[in-house]
Amino acid sequence: MEIAEHIAALRQQGESLATAADRAGLDAPVPTCAPWLVKDLIRHTGYVHRWAARHITECPERILDGPPEAEILDGGAPDDELLAWFRAGHTALVETLTEADPDLRTATFMDAPTPLAFWARRQAHETAIHRADADSAMRATPGFPPDFAADGIDELIMGFGRRHKYQPHGDHEGTLRFAATDTGDDWYAQAEDGLLQPRRGRRPRPMQHRGRRPRPMQHRGGLAGPATCTVSGPASGLYLFLWNRAEATSAEVTISGDARLLSQWKTSVRVRWG
After folding, report:
1. How high is the pLDDT of residue 164?
2. Model-level pTM?
3. Domain boundary among 83, 117, 136
4. Where residue 221 sits, what CATH number does that domain have?
5. How far apart are CA 116 and CA 111, in angstroms?
């Protein structure tokens, strides 16, 4: 996906999040983020949008520190102004990314072709997953375009996956395979030296940005034997499942092989504000 596509997705997902939050009500529980209420979800995501925009406008050399989550949830706007506050911050982030210099230099926390490509992609998926949270408050499960969902799976496995220690035990060692059945993408994760070594499979996803030639992200190295556990399903369902927003059955995800390996992945690879 190109930067413009990520920005368009950010715009759409943010609008859908606000609509779902309005329909559910600010005091509705968010089952996928218990014990949050919808107003907590809105305050969190609204803060993250403003925090991300500062990296584009201020161009710091290091990732900006933020307050603890509890302080974020006590901030924002009063309840009767909260959705307007969220929409204003979301709109400002979309405009900031749209108008940014493609060659700007600012801090990031995962590899990407450019800083702008990183922030557009990260905020598109941050917002999409929290849109799923808002939908859960209405007991609804969202669907995502397959290529967008596959891009989000790629970010989770190839980006966040590399940042987490993973310590398999004894006979639980092996290789995980994640397969999106509708797009043909697959990914592998193998533990080496206490760290996850994720790799793309047979359909490497090109990462592009405006004004430059595409730079394909190549499959790196081989794997020791076949996958020990395979997790497969349509990209949208797999995306929600791997982000712990849906159970395997509701996401139409199939797990074959040693499921203990998947349990260790889901315990090890967890993304938190901090």
Report:
1. 61
2. 0.89
3. 136
4. 3.30.1050.10
5. 11
